[in-house]
Description:
By secondary structure, the protein is of the alpha/beta class. The protein has 26 helices and 23 strands. The protein has a 9-stranded mixed beta sheet with strand order 6-5-4-3-2-1-7-8-9. Strands 17-18-19-21-20 form a 5-stranded mixed beta sheet. The chain has a 4-stranded antiparallel beta sheet with strand order 10-13-14-15. The longest helix has 24 residues, at 396-419. 48% of the residues are buried. Bound molecules: iron/sulfur cluster.
Amino acid sequence: MAPGPARAALTEFVLKVHARCDLACDHCYVYEHADQSWRRRPVRMTPDVLRAAAGRIAEHAAAHGLPDVTVVLHGGEPLLLGPDGLGQVLAELRRVIGPVTRLRIGMQTNGVLLSERFCDVLAEHDVAVGVSLDGDRAANDRHRIYRSGASSYDQVLRALALLRRPAYRRLWSGLLCTVDVRNDPIAVYEALLAQEPSRIDFLLPHATWDDPPWRPAAGDTTYARWLRAVHDRWRADGRPVPVRLFDSLLSTARGGPSGTEWLGLDPVDLAVIETDGEWEQADSLKTAYDGAPATGMTVFSHAADDVAASPLLARRRSGRAGLSDECRRCPVVDQCGGGLFAHRYGAGHFDHPSVYCADLKELIVHVNENPPEPVRLDAGLPDDFIDRLAAPTGDRVAIGRLVEAQIAIVRALLAEVADRLPAGAAGADGWEALTALDRSAPESVARIAAHPYVRAWAVDCLAGTGTGARQGPGYLSALAAAAALDAGVPVRLDVPVRSGRLHLPTMGTVLLPEVGDGTARVEIGPGSLRVRAGDVTVAVSPGAAGGPRWWPTRRLVAPDVSVLLEDGDPHRDCHRLPADDRLDDAGAVRWAETFAAAWQVIRDEVPGHAEELRTGLRAVVPLRRSGDGVSEASTARQAFGGVAATETDAGSLAVLLVHEFQHSKMNALLDVCDLVDGTGPIDITVGWRPDPRPAEAVLHGIYAHAAVADIWRVRADRQVDGAQAVYRQYRDWTAEAIGALQRADALTPAGSRLVRQVARSMSGWPS
Ligand code: SF4
């Protein structure tokens, strides 16, 4: 595991690339609030400022060993740079920062100028685009208007339609809505949801104790009521889209990170660079007083570390210690964190609770008292869940739901393994450690639970078969040690060793040939792993390259995805075909190169599937080559998110990954929803196999082959040699199987709906 960023590091940088805007929103904190520094700044960031800014970010990432940094283009309005100007900025950022760390680029825009040309530039540089929209037409036009007073609504909707196109969908990171309590909360929520965003951010209007927010009456918690109404509807809808505000509260209620500077006690790790190169603190401080965000430093004179140490930023990074006395005593401080720093300002200082204190308290209590339903099963699934999964272009939100459901299933399986443990048996300590970690580091436990081959072990272990039985329930300690290593939490546990290998899922394998079968003591410290067995001690720096005793789990990485190259997990060999042994370095490099190229193919040909794979694919398992050299691939019923494949070329791997992940999705869907009516065995003849198949296998085939046909359809459209014939074959197989399955009357209403949707998607395809 790569070492985590040092606490002092900044990881997000907001770049003001264009300081003017083509709208004149009256709630804009850049122009309409106390700080008026925009008046003296250059309109555009000049190339020398950009170069210096990118250099400072790269320098900071290198100094702190940051695995990634985020740069968000902001304004004003960044699209006012024009497509060419924007492309130059993006290219410069990638050129300077890209070689040092993984660079995530975002952009916040009002959207009104967005065009295909812009989208192509944004796609080329892989930019996540957030768009501001305050609700329906009336809500939006209350504030978001041109200087002339004209509405911006139609232009924004046109931009969102562009971002929903399959080619650009992956760019769209979500909607940002500033709350106005005079708007109807449900109408706003529905209007935002209708745009099919991948996330919604609700922001409270910036205000301070000196300049408080509008309320119908003093002391009225109208903002809490408004957000409660949205929350309750969102919850009743089955949480159809992530809403950062509510997700943050749900996360912090479990002791997790807040994921936003608006809430919680996570240290702020963000700084702003203005068009003239001045370092500033968060933009929201513009609402406090003129000059509030200023640091007195520029990218020419000061490094990011200097900014991080500046007094106000240091205070915003000090968690509970930086809060007012009243906040420190507050029962919901861990979730609220005093609200946004700027909202605490009044009478010349920040030692106040938030000006939204009463609203925040009421909202947090309400969300805590109304926790989300677990993912609803069968008839209780959100109405459009099946439709979202049936769409051949894929749907990240629905896959996210499947991932959540899978983690819940794995947690239940782990609890069952633990329940069956006799007192004091191997694994009992591991279970205790795992449950403690679930309170202190739930994200790390969830990460381990999401690994495909943890479920494969648990199922085998409970059934007393295969490698799961051989590893035994003591493997719970391996899971706990892996989660502790991920979280950097110290633990000491006895972990099973089988055939001389001690495996920590998702992390790597310690080689202990002298132990054979037995246990070894694992000690995790901050950034360290020590294993003792008899006279042997192995000390590993988890981020280090492999050595004679340590095989770290390697990753397959492309610019916007990272999955495990899983050639060490003892439970990976649950596929139809035998898993290959640990790859040598040359083999791993070949896999990495082929995967990166295959990922480019998927993004280019079927970007919607790339979105899905990014959300749900966790591991790729190399399979042993067959004698005839034919490319093979496989998924396993009990290993959602794992795809096994033989080594092949990039174009074939792209098809195999999409094809097999469809099977993985179908398996996960069958876990939460009955699709096949099991009242009688029905065998159906299909085009892709000589032998008649049961209804569930036909359903799998339809789902997978529709996706494969979709890829070949794109290739045929691009006149790739032979693609037309392959497309037709997969399309015809799928269409015939749909007809046969429908005639067999073998599906539940949910299964029928899924098949109908697949058929509907295919109906517009060329003959
Ligand atoms: S609810 Fe009020 S007192 Fe409590 S932490 Fe938030 S702002 Fe501070």
